[in-house]
Amino acid sequence: MILDRFEYLRPSNVDEVVTAITTEDEVAIISGGTWVVQQMGQHLRRPKVVVDLSAAGLSGVSTNQDTISIGPSTTYTQLLEAGDTPPFLRKVASGITGGIQIRNAGTIGGSACFAYPPSDAPGALVTLNATMVLRSGDGQRKVAATDFFLDALTTALRPGEFLEEILVPIADTERIFSYQKFRNVTGSTPIVTAGCIASEDGLAKRVVIGGAATTPVVVDLAGDESEDEIADLTRSLISHPWSDALANANYRRHTAGTMATRAVRAVREQIEGEER
To answer: Range of 259's domain?
Structure first.
């Protein structure tokens, strides 16, 4: 139950969003509200102003020349139903923790901005080489997903800014891919996720690990490494491991190596299957 008083604003367009969040008071921006509202109910956040983006026209998926545009208020259900959703992201959305309730309410942008390390969105967006379009009263600026996630629960968003759009290169959505997720039980928060999309030359040269560190970990490969080499390299790159009640840092680091090899193996097997 939320006992604290706050002003609730539901802007109907982007300009109204800019006006609503340009204040000296503490502002909480919600889209689906699955993270922030929970924190408010637990009295972990006490914003003076809550800005709801659900009516601001910031949902939907469309193709624009060489990119796919995704509105931050797009729910996981909408991602599954939209024809232009990248296949990789459709795979991610189909396995979101929480079942149909979270798929219907949770949004890709809300999850990205909350930046909870084990959630699917951060690692998935880095895997897709997404660009985050941020908006404020000063205009737009673009930040690569790899630079957007700064720490656990911390992003590159500045005061007075909000996520206006997510851009994904079409070239990275048409290749063979794998998305692997390890969790203790079905329906629980992931321990580690691993995403891999084949490179332009048809090799598995990049795998992105989520959940093992405070931010997604990018593992760059030559393409011919053994599985043991992939696992060892992945574990060596986790310099800021994530630990919580579900799994400690050592367990996540070890699991990350295993999941990276699984993701790369799955891509390699698909490539070999196409070559036969």
So the answer is: 177-275
